[in-house]
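sorry for the late reply, my laptop died twice this morning and i had to redo everyting from scratch. anyway the thing you sent over, i finally got around to it. pasting the sequence first so we're on the same page, its 206 residues, then the predicted structure underneath. double check i copied it right bc i was rushing
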Amino acid sequence: MRHDTLLRRRQRDALTMMVARSMAIRPAQFFRELVASDLCDAGVVSSSGILRDALDEAEKHPKSSRIYTLGYEGRGIGDFLATLLGARVTDILDVREHASSRKLGFSERMLARLASKIGITYHHIPELGVPREHRELFGNLSTVALARNEYRRRIERNIDVLADAAALCRDGRAALVCYERDARYCHRYALSTMLREMTQLEVQHL
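ok and here's the structure:
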């Protein structure tokens, strides 16, 4: 238990030092430092600092704009950021209602600052999140369709926020970010469908 506490403290200090620098940092160096702090798996990151599988996928579509979605459940901050970089994401659209997390690197301020180090702009859009009392509906196969329909009706009443998110998707390569690893059991699946209808962009769940 003491070892885990010390490791987490060392990792937190390493992240704090990385984001405190005012100078730019190359992706390869950025991810080498994450690997050195046990915040990224060395085996999945290429020499250029990009997740190998994501880089292979990005090479297939080097110029096409699309909407990505990504959950951080079961991912470390290093692998998460490498996945976004490999897909050439330009903007994170954090669609959690509350952008806080006990998982290292995923609270709003830290995630925004880490993303900026590799050229990704962070946007928190809490209006596109899901109230706590409705989240369980998304996690159950028998209620997920109901949850998606209820979510669509609620968001359609806040169309200006949805339009702003659509504009960000059109202008770059945006990724909708939330917690759940499987998009099918997260509201970002329904949200990505709505944004696809508005923008005509292809959706890819990373």
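The radius of gyration is 17 Å.
thats about all i looked at so far, will dig more tmrw
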